[in-house]
């Protein structure tokens, strides 16, 4: 069994054991404050119902459910009266609410993301374990009271919980992709400053609001995040359409016979893998992927097509001309200007190129030289190493070699180790 499969199995197993323990304990001892449990369970289920299917790399497809789960884990008072629910009941309510919310998705054929569910259970359990024992023993209120210091303590717990979730997310992605752990963790931590910070802040406000005003505060505080989730779904739909448009434009060179079938897709997949290896993330990876998909679109402006579509074999001035033509075409499509800049600078000397252009140039040359021929893979990589004096950045070529040695990406010719 691969080490990555062991890691994924261990995380899923830990979440399964925790969820089962919570459900068994709650069924055996009964619910404490059933009104609170029902309200927060319904909120979590509503958040899951409103979620959309997560694409690979997306952090939080159900922010309302996450905020509700964290708020329940940090709930100390209900309208001024101390609560008595414990860690295992919190886990049980989050598990039951999450399962209730994903049933319609399963019925439509969109099964749950097991990594997402495992992370939800483990991180909520972590938050509850950090807060509930200290609160129920009177340690928190005895030392901090219920003022600003108490709110700061909640923020601290949520900060640690966010770090825990980032560590788990990077660990699972590392296990599934074999990308370096450091850049993946850095990318996850950056994401905490976006929707992650909104989820944590809403969780704190919900816990404090219910503590002061009771359960009536939940719907009022949930509406803004629910609207945000709906807006995010629309944004994601627009982004999906944009990506499909870019992919269609990239296939135009293949349909016209300018490039071999699958060339743009292979270059995009391998460029993204090399970008992750170099520590790129978020918007940088999106620009890199789009530029890699459209890197050969300048060939549509040529009167005579390049033999085999292999621009890496052309003289430098012809490569630069095709790149500039490609940049002009990309600008006319309405794609972000950063993508056009990468496309038009892919043929420049690497010392003058931005990082994304260095990656696209090296990966394009590798695929031009190797294609789908395993026997030519080592020779292509060696030619790239010989070109590091001027044409290809040494660090990019080294990262490309590491990615290929690990198996590359689906559909890309890899280089054997040893």
Automatic annotation (TrEMBL):
Key words of the record: Membrane, Transmembrane, Transmembrane helix
TM stretches of this protein: 86-105, 117-135, 147-171, 191-210
InterPro entries associated with the record: Cyclic_di-GMP/3'3'-cGAMP_PDE (IPR052020), HD/PDEase_dom (IPR003607), HD_domain (IPR006674)
Superkingdom in the source lineage: Bacteria
Residues of the HD domain: 263-366
Designated name of the protein: HD domain-containing protein
Species annotation: Streptomyces roseolus
